[in-house]
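RECORD TYPE: inverse folding
INPUT: structure tokens
STRUCTURE:
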């Protein structure tokens, strides 16, 4: 039986308005989910940085999403035929969770007038959660050392900060054309909203299962998703698009990456620095939030009970593929270990092939796999590579030398799929760009027209457009990168830019060779 929610409202036609951006200094309750009467839906305000340059949090994914213009009389008018247009469970779940978090909200204080018929609400209220404000904790200022300090001037001059660059006028024009056509750039799509809610449900359930202390499980997940959205919106701001585009609030970064709160805070500090909002520092990889696993020690992994025997075999084949070509070893543990481990969880959503954090995350690295996409073994390899610290291939600093981004077919809300990663956090270790990499995106990802490419190889395009995005197996350069990262303990780079210098052939230059031998042993192959 469908859940029916009865609520007393005026008989005037009612529409919803998007939530106003939450300001960190705000102490009043959030904008109500329901109020009488509802103001007409207006275009959302332009995104402006809040005090102390805090990027604005996203709109509420339900109110600002596909149900923002939903005529709530269909749901709330006791005289209306509820079976005519039932509200989806994921929307009801969000409403119930919202009022559980914000019981002092004006709309939630009328909860005694709600009547649930047929079954209980989709979310059981948490009696321990008593949050009464929407104020977000401020983004902490992170002190980031400058790896270019003490570097010879000839090497410093070869470094350009490629990350999160501003689009030129032609690129901005091309990508924003979509906002006047097929893409509602200020609204959240139903797919994004469903994805965010599905990820939140699974992460909350996992967090409560793994941790004895569950008091703040839901708040922690929600804050992390808000921070991820702030990063995506800050990247849009950096590109010059934020006044006209709201990023897809789907809980992920670059479609299949989950960011920790610390990683998001780090990226926000980086972007603020690029904007001139604080002194520009670069990120030293070894101190950055991206962490590698210990070389020479087997990486423990375990399975959630949601995986069946066939699913487990898919993962084992993926891990054997990595072990076969590298020194990396994985060790299955049936019981939860005390040390950090990878935890494979089945995601029931067929639209999500896989999700993973990037780099080692304490105390557990969950990897979510649906096992319902083509090349499921390759998908498992791809997501495990993320957990090992490998980023997407087409977000490298030298991306534009190898592929052309087709901005006229890019969904502006998915701009983060194409924003070059921060070169001061990710290093190539001197391994060249690779069309064959299992970490490369499909040529059609993030497109408005799924039949037209968004990424076109510059070299032999007719040949390589059929190859990029493959999930059949590790390429030779994928293997080379993992070996450089993990298979020569004690051979380290002292500077995150060593990979770029190696690709520019500075390793063997007479005037730089001595410095490179002392500081870039790994990327230059000096050990």
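DESIGNED SEQUENCE:
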């Amino acid at each position: 039986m469908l859940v029916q929610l009865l609520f007393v409202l005026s008989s005037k036609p009612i529409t919803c308005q998007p939530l106003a951006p939450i300001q960190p200094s705000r102490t009043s309750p959030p904008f109500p989910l329901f109020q009488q009467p509802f103001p007409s839906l207006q275009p959302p305000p332009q995104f402006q940085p809040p005090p102390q340059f805090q990027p604005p949090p996203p709109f509420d994914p339900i109110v600002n999403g596909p149900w923002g213009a939903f005529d709530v009389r269909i749901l709330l008018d006791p005289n209306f035929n509820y079976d005519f247009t039932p509200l989806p469970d994921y929307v009801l779940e969000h409403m119930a969770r919202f009022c559980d978090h914000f019981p002092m909200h004006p709309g939630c204080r009328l909860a005694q007038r709600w009547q649930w018929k047929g079954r209980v609400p989709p979310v059981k209220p948490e009696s321990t959660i008593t949050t009464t404000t929407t104020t977000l904790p401020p983004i902490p200022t992170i002190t980031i050392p400058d790896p270019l300090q003490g570097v010879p001037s000839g090497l410093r001059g070869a470094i350009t900060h490629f990350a999160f660059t501003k689009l030129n006028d032609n690129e901005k024009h091309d990508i924003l054309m979509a906002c006047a056509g097929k893409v509602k750039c200020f609204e959240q799509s139903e797919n994004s909203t469903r994805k965010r809610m599905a990820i939140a449900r699974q992460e909350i359930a996992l967090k409560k299962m793994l941790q004895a202390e569950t008091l703040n499980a839901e708040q922690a997940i929600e804050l992390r998703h808000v921070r991820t959205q702030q990063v995506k919106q800050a990247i849009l701001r950096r590109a010059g698009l934020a006044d006209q585009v709201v990023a897809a609030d789907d809980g992920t970064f670059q479609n299949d990456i989950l960011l920790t709160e610390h990683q998001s805070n780090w990226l926000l500090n980086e972007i603020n620095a690029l904007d001139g909002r604080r002194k520009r520092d670069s990120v030293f990889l070894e101190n950055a939030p991206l962490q590698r696993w210990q070389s020479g020690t087997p990486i423990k992994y375990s399975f959630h009970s949601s995986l069946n025997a066939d699913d487990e075999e898919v993962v084992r084949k993926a891990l054997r593929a990595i072990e076969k070509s590298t020194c990396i070893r994985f060790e299955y543990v049936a019981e939860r270990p005390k040390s950090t481990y990878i935890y494979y969880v089945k995601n029931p959503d067929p639209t999500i092939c896989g999700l993973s954090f990037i780099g080692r995350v304490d105390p557990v690295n969950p990897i979510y796999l649906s096992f319902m996409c083509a090349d499921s073994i390759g998908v498992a390899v791809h997501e495990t590579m993320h957990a090992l610290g490998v980023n997407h291939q087409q977000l490298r600093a030298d991306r534009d030398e190898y592929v052309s981004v087709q901005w006229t077919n890019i969904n502006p809300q998915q701009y983060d799929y194409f924003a070059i990663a921060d070169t001061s956090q990710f290093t190539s270790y001197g391994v060249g760009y690779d069309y064959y990499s299992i970490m490369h995106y499909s040529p059609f990802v993030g497109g408005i027209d799924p039949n037209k490419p968004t990424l076109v190889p510059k070299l032999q395009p007719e040949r390589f457009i059929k190859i990029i995005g493959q999930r059949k197996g590790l390429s030779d350069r994928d293997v080379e990168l993992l070996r450089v990262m993990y298979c020569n303990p004690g051979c380290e780079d002292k500077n995150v830019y060593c990979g770029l210098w190696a690709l520019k052939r500075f390793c063997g230059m007479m005037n730089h060779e001595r410095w490179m031998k002392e500081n870039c042993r790994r990327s230059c192959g000096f050990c």
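NOTES: Confidence is low (pLDDT under 50) at residues 1-87, 105-134, 277-289.
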